[in-house]
Amino acid sequence: MKLKLYKLIVPFTFILLGIIVWSCSDDDTDGSGSNNDDFNRQVMLTNWADNIIVPSYVAFSADVDALKVASDAFELSPSQDNLNALRTAWEEAYISWQSVSMFNIGPAETAFFRSFVNTYPTNSNSIDNNIASGNYNLQDINLNDAQGFPALDYLLYGLALTDAEILEFYTSNSNSSNYIAYLSEVVDRIDAITDQVVSAWQGNYRDTFVNNDGASSNSSTNSLVNDWMEYYERFFRNGKIGFPAGVFSEGNLEAEKVEAFYRRDLSKTLCLEALDALQAFFRGRIFNGTNNGESLESYLDFLNTMKDGDDLSALINDQFNNSRLAIQSLDDNFYQQIISDNNAMLAAFEELQANVVLLKSDMFSALSIAVEFNSGDGD
Q1: Three-class SS state of 310
Q2: Alpha-carbon distance 249 to 240, whole Å?
Q3: Rounded Cα distance, 74 and 152, in Å
Q4: Top CATH class, 40-213
Q5: In 3-state terms, what secondary structure has residue 285?
Q6: What pTM does this model have?
Q7: Torsion angle of C-alpha atoms 307, 313, 314, 316, degrees rounded to 10
Q8: Contact at 8 Å (CB) between 117 and 97?
Q9: Where, residue-wise, is CATH 1.20.1420.20 in the chain?
Q10: Distance of alpha carbon 369 from its chain centroid, rounded?
Q11: At 17, is the pLDDT very low, low, confident or very high (cuts 50, 70, 90)?
Q12: CA distances from 348 to 147, 193, 344 (A)
């Protein structure tokens, strides 16, 4: 984020008055003070770990296992039925991914989980070259855009215009064995790295995360809230809406950058699933449940955090809901939406941007959490 500096000319008496008011107040609910509150962060971390993060990962891992089963079946017999089953498993796992992508902390960060699993747009030229040569290593971070769900999007939908022609790449093509091998290895890579991250959370990392309940910059709360907010800005708001809609390219549309470019009618579904997961985390919603535990929402309520006379947590939830309505109004196919009426995409972006102010400025200030990431878009 590029910070914009402004010169402020303020009478000395106003400055002195402000200092006196601040120093005489013991009310920290306006977010301007330090973390001297008695909110139990460990209870919140426990809810995050045990009721949201680990269950989300376990569910995602099960969907990835189903994807591998479907991939193995297709490898043995690349038929239309098996292609359909593989596509269904890919879609279900991709939707499930939206619930865990925000948790780029600990083992996920160490494994470059998000980078390997969902870097888009995928590099179809790199995929084609890898298949042609048979010489590649999917553990190479430089091949992050030639694997994961976006690569499968290309391999399952983007090789040709018809299913019959796509199947030929895996059956009668002179290099069909390499196509099969590459598709299978992409799935195996997702499966292996998912197992790595889930095993770490189910092992020692869960306790490490929960017990790091302080208020320092490297505490679990501060680290995860920063990761969550960075995801909201860079990978959700910008990645799913802003970049393809031309927000950061001087109005030049880049519709080819939409998520699920080859299976285009999935883009809105993925976006809404991610939005739901973001709000559920803010509210402390138990994964696949209806009850809320300790959360960012309850932390703000504990501090009685207000903005212009309204509860900040309510304002944030209202803006999540406004954003959802704007996205629901879009075409299922974001690529088509951008081409036909990009103003609707830009309107959705603005709704998402409105919550950046409430979250990144007001919430971070109230919870005394410093912003420790660069959103990279100059806001």
Answers
A1: strand
A2: 15
A3: 13
A4: mainly alpha
A5: strand
A6: 0.90
A7: 90
A8: yes
A9: 40-213
A10: 20
A11: very low
A12: 29, 33, 6
Distance CA 263, CA 112 (A): 25
- Tokens 């629901």 locate to 328
The dihedral region occupied by 255, where left means phi > 0, alpha psi between -120 and 50, and beta the remainder, is: alpha
How many Cα atoms occupy the beta-carbon half-sphere of 277 within 13 Å?
25
Tens of pLDDT, residues 267-315:
999 999 999 999 999 999 999 999 999 999 999 999 999 999 999 999 9
Residue identified by tokens 């809609």 is 245
Residue 18 predicted with pLDDT over 90: no
Place of tokens 């179809």: 124
Please, what is the average pLDDT of the chain? 91
Rounded to a whole number, what is the largest CA-CA distance in the chain? Answer: 83
- List helix spans (H) across the chain: 12-24, 41-47, 54-76, 80-97, 107-110, 113-117, 124-133, 148-153, 163-170, 176-200, 206-211, 220-230, 267-283, 296-302, 312-328, 334-340, 342-356, 364-366
Q: Which residues pair with 310 in a beta bridge?
A: 307
DSSP 292: B
